[in-house]
Amino acid sequence: MSSVDENGRLRVALCQLDGVVGDLDGNVERISAALDTATAAGCDLAVFPELAISGYPPEDLLLKPRFVADCASALEKLAQRTGDCVAVIGSPHSDDRGVANAAAVCARGGVVGMVHKTNLPNYGVFDEERYFVAGSPDTLFSVDGIVVGISICEDMWVDDGAVDRLVAAGARMILNLNASPFRAGKHDRRLEVARRRLAGAGVPLVYVNTVGGQDSLVFDGTSFVLDAVGEVVARAKRFAEDVLVVDVEAGAARPTLLPVTEVPATRLSTASAPSAPRHEELTGGIAEIYDAVVCGTRDYVLKNGFDKVCIGLSGGIDSSVVAVVAATALGPAAVHGILMPSRHSSDHSVDDALALCENLGITHDVVSIEAAHTAYEAMFTDLFGDRDPNLTDENLQSRLRGVLLMAVANENGWLVLTTGNKSELAVGYSTLYGDTAGAFAVISDVWKLGVYELAREHNRRAGSEVIPVTVIDKAPSAELRPDQRDDQSLPPYEVLDPVLEALVEHDKTPADLVAEGHEASFVHRIARLVDIAEYKRRQSPLGPKVSAKAFVRDRRMPITNHYRGVGGR
């Protein structure tokens, strides 16, 4: 049995940080600064995200023994800086069983205890069984007389798992360290799971999530506290770093059925009155997707050492949305537009692209590809003979633009943002080494209809038509041949997108969709386009994940694939 405070509360700092994978020194400084803030606020306890030391996900860095050892050294350095405010910090931890995804409890200059993640997710974007050994709930911690149970991310999502066992063993408060990636609607799902997990237990939950972009993953933060009856009493910022200070009332004292580690600390919060809880605004729908792609774009560019991006601007909806996202994420001065008209470009498209640049306040160049296009045509006459322009000619124009963008980026040390959307990537309506040339695909996980919503959302926030209404209203076109429109090659997006979403995000087969009433030849044609475009997607740049299932990382389909989903061959 542990000594207990019968009606206690702890002042807890939810330290929601934007760490960088592998930047151990930088992560130590970020954690130290947040710990100083928590201590100054009179906090008894500061809780940090999952793998805060290493950044999340460290992936195959964890296979390097030196990396894991360096993480241990960084943790020790942090522990030495702790005083009476107890810090719970996520870090890799190696012992004789292997490497664990761990939470270290630190106080008064040392590591007091270690908790290993029990449930290792191995689905979707997660691959933790590749790297970690699983632990089990084997201890509770007494922080100033209040018995606390510590869990890590997936542990909360599993029925009869670590959290249930910690509560049953007498925990009066649950701390849950997370690196939970964003997808649309994810916060509501977290709340649903958390409330179900603690329903009737009379125990509060402190949920701390990481924030920021890491390659294709985006973490929204949105850390929160549930009280003992499941009400949200405080919520941290979304898509931004935050130190949220909350006075958390512990559940009733009960007998403890696990060993209890006493954490040496002094109750700091008794010196001040309870702090008022803070509830940050929670966006939903297209607004949260907008914020996610802005966050993912900002962190990908800045964390990889770039200070400026360039974008090919066509006057179409996709490149316009990428431009406004980039300007929002990085500032207009960090964005350069390049207009590359051809003989098929309409005057209104050029005018729309120029208007967008003026509205955003971004620099731009206009470089016609006509001379290069004509030169290549002459070269190809010897190879192909006289022939009418065809798909090869259309792809050539796209590749010429890709070469030009990459040359400008190379010359200036910039990074190219590509403009393809999820609908185009799904059916292969893109040109390899052309409009796929670049480093980061901002809207690659947004269906075409969603791109229009993003445009309207930006204009709503701006209070003006930053993206000209003519861009939003015009029929989508690649403008690679006279009078070309997307609906000459593809069904209208109002028809196409729901079928693509069913095939890609919900794992439906053509047979499933036909059984639901869709026209068979249409469904089979679209499914075939999705299958044969897999090789293109593998060679396309990554982009921020905002849906339930993004290409490549979430959806790992074979390129060589003869399954047609028609109920047999």
Summarize it.
The chain has 569 residues and is α/β, with parallel strands linked by helices. The chain is built from 16 helices and 20 strands.
Description of the molecule:
By secondary structure, the protein is an alpha/beta fold. It is 35% helix and 19% strand. The chain is built from 16 helices and 20 strands. It has helices at 24-40, 65-80, 162-168, 186-198, 285-303, 317-330, 347-360, 370-384, 391-412, 422-427, 448-462, 469-473, 493-504, 510-515, 520-532, 534-538, and strands at 9-16, 45-47, 86-95, 98-107, 110-116, 140-143, 146-152, 173-178, 205-209, 211-214, 217-220, 224-226, 232-235, 242-249, 260-263, 309-313, 335-339, 363-366, 415-418, 440-441. A seven-stranded mixed sheet has the order 13-12-9-8-7-6-15, with helices on one face. Helix 5 (285-303) packs across helix 6 and helix 8 (370-384) packs across helix 9 (391-412). The longest helix has 22 residues, at 391-412. The chain starts with 8 loop residues before the first strand and ends in a 31-residue tail after the last helix.
